[in-house]
Amino acid sequence: MKVTSDVEPNLTILETPRLRLRRTRHPDIPSLIALWTDPEVTRHMGGPREESLLTRVFTEAAEDPFAERYDLWPVEEKITGEVIGDCGLLQKEIEGVNEIELVYVIARSRWGRGYATEMAEALKQYAVETLGHKRLVALVDPENTASERVAKKIGMQLEKEVVRPGGDIRRLFVLEDA
Ligand SMILES: CC(C)(COP(=O)(O)OP(=O)(O)OC[C@H]1O[C@@H](n2cnc3c(N)ncnc32)[C@H](O)[C@@H]1OP(=O)(O)O)[C@@H](O)C(=O)NCCC(=O)NCCS
């Protein structure tokens, strides 16, 4: 009888033609840190994060990759095997309502190739078909034109503007009865 305990677990959440979304592994950590400390990438997302905090959070995720049902996960570019983004679904309370937020973050070197749209579309399907959600939202900085384009391209519509804790204004894009 084959003992299966030494078989590497399948970390893949979903695949698109060019990208793979999968749970965090230790070798992903430097790329994820580079992403979240980049001032341009984080400009509309609260600014660069503390490296020590990122190291702790990503190490915890790599040590227990199945711990969270809702999270951001590394995006692997299939052709290079490099981690070029961090995308996923988060549970968030927005103006007193529990929402599922679709989040997409792509490394600057890969902007403009359609990767965010490709991953957002796949995550939308995953949220609706696999997890059974009927409503998804995206919170977009009014100055973040690229992010707004992605939300609209996957069929989201502007519902209203909301004020986040801390005072930032965000456009709430919504996909209803998905
Ligand atoms: C927003 C982001 C994810 C878009 O990633 P991307 O892979 O470059 O997006 P895509 O290539 O799929 O392009 C999506 C659309 O945005 C447009 N776009 C891209 N960059 C743009 C820019 N700087 N200004 C205006 N439009 C832009 C593209 O032209 C495309 O629209 P089109 O098909 O109508 O031409 C990426 O810029 C990013 O990671 N930004 C930092 C993190 C962030 O702000 N995430 C959003 C949080 S809600």
Short description:
The chain is α+β, with helices and mostly antiparallel strands and 178 residues long. Helices cover 26% and strands 33% of the residues.
Q: What would your notes on this structure say?
A:
With 178 residues, the protein is α+β, with helices and mostly antiparallel strands. It is 26% helix and 33% strand. The protein has helices spanning 29-36, 51-63, 115-130, 145-153, and strands at 12-15, 19-22, 71-77, 83-94, 97-106, 135-140, 157-163, 169-176. It has a five-stranded antiparallel β-sheet, with helices on both faces. It has a three-stranded antiparallel β-sheet with strand order 6-8-7. Strand 7 (157-163) and strand 8 form a beta hairpin. Helix 1 (29-36) runs antiparallel to helix 2. The chain is globular, with a radius of gyration of 16 Å. Coenzyme A is lined by residues 41, 44-45, 104-106, 111-117, 138, 140, 144-147, 149-150.
How is the secondary structure organized here?
Blueprint: E1 12-15, E2 19-22, H1 29-36, H2 51-63, E3 71-77, E4 83-94, E5 97-106, H3 115-130, E6 135-140, H4 145-153, E7 157-163, E8 169-176
Antiparallel strand pairs: 1-2, 2-3, 3-4, 4-5, 6-8, 7-8
Helix pairs in contact: 1-2
Bound molecules: coenzyme A.
The site of coenzyme A (COA) has 21 residues, from strand 5, helix 3, strand 6 and helix 4.
